[in-house]
Amino acid sequence: MPMITYPFSHFAKTVTFLARQAFLNATVFRGNTFFALFSDLLFVFLSIEVWQALYASKETSLVTESQLITYVVLARLLPNVMMEFVDTVQQRILSGEIASELLRPIRFSVYLLGLEIGRYGHRFLLQVLPIALLIHGLIGINLPTSGLYMALFVISLVFSFLLMFYINYIISLLAFWYTQVFSINTIKNQTVRFLSGIYVPLWFFPEWAVPIVQSLPFASIVYIPMQIYLQTCTLPQAVAYLGLQWFWTICMIVLAHWIWSRAVKQISINGG
Amino acid sequence: MDAIIVEDLWKIYRVKEHRNGFVGGLIDLFRPVWKEKEAVRGIHFTIPQGQSVGYIGPNGSGKSTTIKMLTGILTPTSGKVRVNGIDPSRRRRENARQIGVVFGQRTQLWWDLAIKESFELFRHIYRIDEKTFRKNVEMMTELLDLDQFASIPVRQLSLGQRMRAEIACAFFHDPKIVYLDEPTIGLDVVAKERIRTFLKEINREKKTTIILTTHDMDDIEHVCERLILIDHGRIIYDGNLQRFVDNYGTDRILTVQFEEPQTSVELECGELIGFDQRQASIRFKKNEISATKLIQQLTARYPIRDCQIEEPKIEHLIRHVYESENVEDEGIHAHDHISI
Amino acid sequence: MDSLKLYYKSFLLQLKTFRIYRVNFFASGIGTLFVYGTQLLGLVTALYHFESVHGWNLYDVSFLYGLWLASYGIHITFFAGVRDFASMVHRGQFDILYVRPHNLLFQVMCGRMDLQAMIHMGASALVLVWSTMHMDLQWSWNLVLKLAVILLGAVLIQMGLTLIWATLSFWLIHVGSLVLFGWTINANYMTYPLSVYDSVIRWIFTIFPMAFITYFPAGWFLGKFSPGSWEYQLGSFTVPVGLLFFLLAYAFWLYGTKHYKSTGN
Fold this sequence. Notes:
The complex is a heterotrimer of chains A (272), B (340) and C (265). By secondary structure, chain A is mainly α. Chain A has one domain. Chain A is built from 10 helices and no strands. The longest helix of chain A has 36 residues. The model of chain A has no long low-confidence stretch (mean pLDDT 90). Chain B has 340 residues and is α/β, with parallel strands linked by helices. In chain B, strand 6, helix 7 and strand 7 form a beta-alpha-beta unit. The C terminus of chain B is likely disordered. With 265 residues, chain C is mostly helical. Chain C has one domain. In chain C, a hairpin with a 2-residue loop joins strand 1 and strand 2. Classes of the chains: A mainly alpha (272), B alpha/beta (340), C mainly alpha (265). Chains in contact: A-B, A-C, B-C.
């Protein structure tokens, strides 16, 4: 398939349109909306108590208790590890219906990205924000004191979202070559949860492991944005972190496009 | 002896009404609105052992609900059900031993295995002794012609082949009654024919009571001696099938397309219900003239390009019953079903 | 006797279909192991840094995890059909079981046997052996018996829990998210000692006995509670608690089967 290039304004328009559609779609009431809210709240609450107990059992100079609590709350809420489109794309690849995606006038990844932005917006407004505010009201979590850090955090969060999106996208495309999607998805989810610092903040990894894990792309999803949010790094460090996030995002985009082009070849040879 | 006795049988469902939107959903969570839906409203009938009965009605008429109460799947809201003298919802397992059920839409066979593996499991489910089992498998294999695909995994079978195997499963344990729910749905003419012949034969030879629900009037005409018609949870016809067909069920509609435009159509038989220059629709009674004969008559006079025969729909039959008997749809008498 | 034979015959048929899905089996097995591996790694990493929490060290907490995994694996051996019951109801396949002359729950159990259970049990055995190797337990027949007793109790509670979720699918459509909810609590939160939570949560998981799968029996088995304390008493009572809970769940199931509204036509 020939590479088609669009002017950026066109790209932005398409993405905004798709995101809006997906956002509205997500607002349609579903039976388990409240249940998802309740269970997330409970999990966050239980996690706080676990980490408070752990924190109390040994002196640590790495972080303060309130920083740890803030980390635990936001690390559970912010990242969307399992994006909704993965299942659908995999099923369409396995059934062969994916061929029709080549007929779309826009690039497949852009189409999915637009939808996922809308869904994330919905999740952020109706799940992340209410729970975070409630916890803040009950227990109190740290808020950034500096506007500059806050701005850097927002940029960092955008990178985190893009990175998570492209990882999910790459995993979904693997269904072209490997049909056991349950196991690939599980391996992806669990790797992200462990290495990004959702299960355990990277501060508490064994000392020798920290530099390695920090430089892996997964740390850019949770650990790095949280470092900036908590202002536990200096400004130059924060900028360097953003550079690392940017690097990994570009890598994933290039990898994703390469895999997609291989997949397209596969479709045109096998007819999907 | 009566195989089935049903007296003043009711089934009322309580269904939740949903409010709209996010706020509505929140209110639903704490103050749900319940609505009562009367699926079966005080029906009566008795079916003697060995009879073959067609139980028909449109979707949502209470037809499936009745069958589910007879088989013990659903517990009635009130009323009496006796199947071989047993209350199926209270003594489900005892009842289950004496009945066979064929679900047209759900499979009882193991998807990845050959049918004979599933058959063997049925022997254990119903504790059938070896001799009876062999005899019955042989009989079913012959009557339903199962031999040619007995060792192919079920998922590779055609719908018709699968349905034949499903039906066979319902008969291994010599049940006194067999319920068949839409056994011919989606099948071609040949496959339908084979199933109808089988049911007739087994009913004659083994004196098995057969309760058949279907959308296809032809199934009923071939297999059943008695017809029960249900609509809005009430029985609106219960009686001899032949008489029903004579009175209501005989209309067919033949639509023909002409090679060249015609100015008028003259008929020896039947009634012209639609006509434009290229096409005509004719309603005729099956017992007065056969479709072939009617087409012959027409081709003799007009150049025919194409023709199509429409079977009567159950909805039409129901309307006929209402029209000719003045049955009140919302009647309040306990015995408002008509017997002819 | 007849029932056992039927169960055995169903099992044989399952084995035959297994051959067709061998690749699937191994791939899912790897996925499953990966989940448990990373979860345990999370616990171990946290406890490696903080050394202990409320008197439970890395190996004690791993033992909690192993106990949970073992009870889950053993219960899946018999209850895979019950675990997947919601889809059976939604596809209308449950109707079929009503017209057969056997106990409904027994038929659900016959309908599906998940060989993945072997992977669960293998993994849990490894975790239990590894964690107890690092404790100074005086192994004796008495202790083995004790281990069997706490496993039995935990399995009964798991079964009761799964049966409750299954029964709820008579009324609710999204039981899947409830199952995941329960599973997450067991796997991620009940694998820390219950004492880390505040009193409300401790009460909730004591009365709705999820803490009887891991915390109370493990504390009793490992000698974490002083003899005579109420935790110790509760820990020694997991089997009766499990039995009672399972019977209550079964009563709920019976109630559900009477009020089953078969869907579709």
